[in-house]
User: Fold these one by one.
Assistant:
Number 1:
Amino acid sequence: MKIIAGNWKMNGSRAGLENMLCDLENVDTDNTVILCVPYTMLCAGNARVAIGAQDVSQHTHGAYTGSVSAQMVADAGAKYVIVGHSECRQYNGDTNSIVCQKAAQVLANGMIPIVCVGETMDEKQAGKTMAVIESGVRESIPSDVSTPIIVAYEPRWAIGAGLTPTADEIACAHALIAKTLADMGLAGTPVLYGASVKGANAAEIMSISNVDGVLVGGASLKSDDFIPIITSVK
Ligand code: PGA
């Protein structure tokens, strides 16, 4: 059983989500299916699909105009929240330390954080991939986790670019993440792969060891693209 999570980013509409939920409701799968949608579309999902948010404030409440708290997204029906997505790290200045605070807020409100880590092209070219991944995992996850979390490895240079690392590169990154999580007392934490996943490569990627599922951007927007990913593995 794998975890298939979609990330709609700043796309879609409430009507589009309704249609997607209907389309997914009868898909025959034992996999866990999650859709992380914009705040305005948060809802309770259905028996087949759990809803997640894509970010959350590191603060509990107060004078933070434009921000949305973990309590608010939980109240709206979210079960999961992506934290530390590369676009939030790039455009909003999220550091490992801020991501860690956000993950703590998500956990404190009874939801499951999907903590993203991954290297930029500059870091890859400088030979820093493994160091960036390990520090990302160690520094972005709170020290006192006692309820489930999910980690996502997203090579930042590959997101939305139609590029994917080699199977060996994915295997090395996931082995390091699994080992680091075990060191932190979090053995068994699911680790997703994300970046340019589509129907044509999903099964192969999910057959790599320590890959427990996928985080899908562009190919999660339409049922015709997302369903083949969900059904590509048992
Ligand atoms: P992509 O995005 O599948 O469009 O590359 C992945 C992500 O940003 O989570």
Number 2:
Amino acid sequence: MKEFLEKCAERRLLLHPETVSMLGADGGLVSRVLDLPEWTVVTPDKLLETGPARREVSGGNGAAEGGGPARTGGEAASHGNASREPSLEVLVDATGESEGSGELRDLNALFRDRLERLGGILKRRRGINPRKVGTIPRKMERQVATVGMVSSVSETNNGNLLLRIEDETGEMPAIVLLRDTGLTEEAGALLVDEVVGVAGHTRKDSDLLLVEEIMRPDVPSVEPGRGGNYYAAFISDLHVGSTTFLGEELERFFSWLRGDVGNEEQRDIAAKTRFLVIAGDVVDGVGVYPGQESHLSVTDLVEQYEEAANLLDTLPDHVEIIVAPGNHDAVRQAEPQPAVSDEFAEALDMKSLTLVSSPSTVSLDGVKVLVYHGRSLDDVVNCVPSATYEEPTAAMKELMRRRHLAPVYGSRTPISPEKSDFMLVDDVPDVLHCGHVHTFGMDSYRGVTLINSGTWQSQTDFQKRMGIEPDPGIVPLMNLSSGERMKLRFA
Ligand code: D5M
Ligand code: FE
Ligand code: ZN
């Protein structure tokens, strides 16, 4: 038995006390347990449903798998004593900051602000000296660079891309000759409304700008911020109140977090997990889509939040819970979404729980986390060929490259017309945490850890029809001191 327990520790399996007694009675179960993926919490239920041994499919996110540190220079994560209490600070929150009246002039103000600030980043980062669109000479040979919003993209008869670039001074057509310039990937990922820098030349015989370079604001390679030897867990899309909400699986995670399961080392990690970030869709909501009633086990919104609060209330007080809303929560749909309010979610008014907007930025003991539900990921997956639902971090990378969380206006993501653009990524975070697409992914991009935390809802009828295969019951975990990333599995 001792040898078996050591092997479990090596495999980073978390044994529920009841499983240990079951194992004594059945030798076959032992080998099945050892075949489970790392970080599985082995409950009696889990054991019974294991059947023949199965292995985890990594889904192409090699870097995300538990184990080795994802960043160099990190100290061993689970050793060394955490001597002081970790700090939580809300750095940016849009709740109550919304000023827009919803009128057209606010939309103009929003776009002007976006253009100015992203233009500033482009100038600084890419060293360009852009001309205003209205001042670009027509029908003359000139080398020019400009920054503007892409107002349309279309394919020409011979397979090139025709764009219109716009700023507050005017609009002009531009053409990307895909074969000649090798810009296929850059140009193929162009989104309507995104702000780009373009360099190229104008010609005597045409009104078109011939594009030679497309520049995106992008992020500098950053040295990530570090905190103390604590962990943060990231989840989203619980959908409490839905018939497909995976309550048992979530409770299994919470029992891990309480330290009720696992060996000494694993309990030590659980005890050091002092932050739980929830990136929206806490509840399934009511009236979110037509016919939703038949998919609800709790049909009252307030009761849905009460059920969510009852679950969260089982966590120890030292776990700071941060809750941002999603499109199923009881707040306005237009982004930025303010924090859920007492009107519906009074039950979440708990000691260690902080309600924030989506997006918002929180500092977890010095590690800056940008939390955003991720509705715009649907737009990115729709428009950018390399972005798929299977690998949501690829779409999140596109957001970082554009320094903008909702680059497309007027499609799937409703955006509130505001005087300033809350969706713009001014300050580069250490972590970008999204959800919404219900698929799991963990990666890093130029020092920014990208996390999509999957879901706690099994496949819905809608997703079945769309062929979306969700990843329920997975918890990404990050050590705030070393940046080490882990993936726990509870489903
Ligand atoms: O969204 C979960 C995922 O399912 C997300 O990728 C969007 C997609 N989804 C869900 N409902 C719809 C509808 N009605 N149209 C298009 N796409 C949809 P969630 O926010 O959890 O519902
Ligand atoms: Fe969701
Ligand atoms: Zn959602």
Number 3:
Amino acid sequence: MPTNVYHSQSEKDEKDNSDHRGFELELLSDELLDAMQTGIIFADTDGIIRRINTPALEDLRITGNIVGKNVKDVLKVSNQDKNILPGLLDQLKEGSVNKVELPENTFIETYQKSAHLFVQGQLTRLSGKKSEIVFVFRNVVNEMIRDFMLKMALSSTKIFPWFYDMDRNVMVIDERYFAYTGIPTKDYTMTLEEFSGRLHPEDQPVMAHAFEQQLTGTHYPYPVSFRLLRGDGSWEWFEGQSTYLGQIDGVPYRVVGICMSTQAHKDIESALIAARNKAEQSDRLKSAFLANMSHEIRTPLNAIVGFSNLLTGGEVAVASEEAQTYVNLINTNCNQLLTLISDILDLSRIESETMEYSYSEFSLNSFLTEVYQVHTLTMPQDIDFGLLLPPKGICMVTDPIRLRQIMDNLLTNAEKFTSRGYIHLGYKISEDTKEVELFVEDTGRGIPSDQCDKIFERFYKVDSFVQGAGLGLSICKTIVEQMSGRILVSSRLEKGSRFSVWLPIKTSA
Ligand code: ADP
């Protein structure tokens, strides 16, 4: 019987295939198969092993000959606690697919328990060979460990790796970067334009220069600080650094880099700068304080001592009218000293943050009427002192003692700097009825416009010859701000000033 007689076309195919198979498999030399860095197992779709290369044997730590055995009896390919090998072989056998990739986190375990390794790989049906497959796998344990260690290390930092994809012209950035910054993304990439659009305008030139250098093959190893616009619209400080891997025709093969959030450092830096500035300011204040105080204390004290001596000296008789003048002067100077001492006490309470506030609800009309009445007693005759209250008064919650202190201070200043015209005390309610403006307006000497802010600083006086330590307004400002308000001044030289204290209207209801 001639050897090439077939009973059907399928019988012929089968014969062709098996002839062809033996031929092809033999054609592949051991050297070639072993030179591959991957494990390779040839088998039929039932799983019978035809050939296996040395890397596979070594990775699986198999010593004996396993050709002819069923791969399903030699090893398990597990994913999510299930042996997926029989299913994969069935798929290939049915012919529904020609190739199946091993899913992520797949590991191979031998029944001999000789090996247990994480792998990447695939099973492919050899073309033209319906019943033959090749199972290729790569041991990725070391890669996984490295990857895991890197991920673990990075996860506790705000460092985000990236690389520049020269083919697609995009930066491919660690997905944590997008989660952290809140920048929307579809595929964890950004074009240079998109990235640059998120940089603070002041930081764009240096970053553009760094990228230009790096992408054209001039090594730029220096860190670049930049502010990045986060997804929520806030700015955050980052530092970026990159390098490139290899060059082809002068063009870097790949630019890789990291960017790291430096916001926490910047915050610490600003806190330290603020602390240093505060310490320097305290030092300056101390010197200014000592310089001012010796003068401010001596002047009224000298007056008090001098006039008291005159009154009690007895050598020259003092007329009763003259005596009254001396007593008045002693009184005025005592008051000045008292004001000074209470300002110094307030200043030290502010510094040590021990100033106490006691909030209560009261009628603003009654409150200002009382302030007005007390100041009417000391107001010079030729000043038109007026109280301007809205017809429908309000009640509000704030600290009445501190508010009194502020209004007294503003009125005392107005009296001190106004020699004609009027001084008006009053309040107005804002249109949205959320705030109240308490004001003291005068037609006094006014304040130069470039000094309107400075008068709220400690020890600042427009005219150093005028009595006063220059502390009142700075204390007022601190108190008003503590009460969630603000103090403002508008003034015209030689025309007058208006001091406004804006406070939120809070009621106890
Ligand atoms: P002092 O207690 O010495 O008056 P303040 O802090 O209250 O200090 O005021 C600081 C400076 O602000 C004053 O020395 C004065 O130059 C200026 N100033 C305050 N109020 C008025 C005002 N109503 N008119 C003109 N200048 C004023």
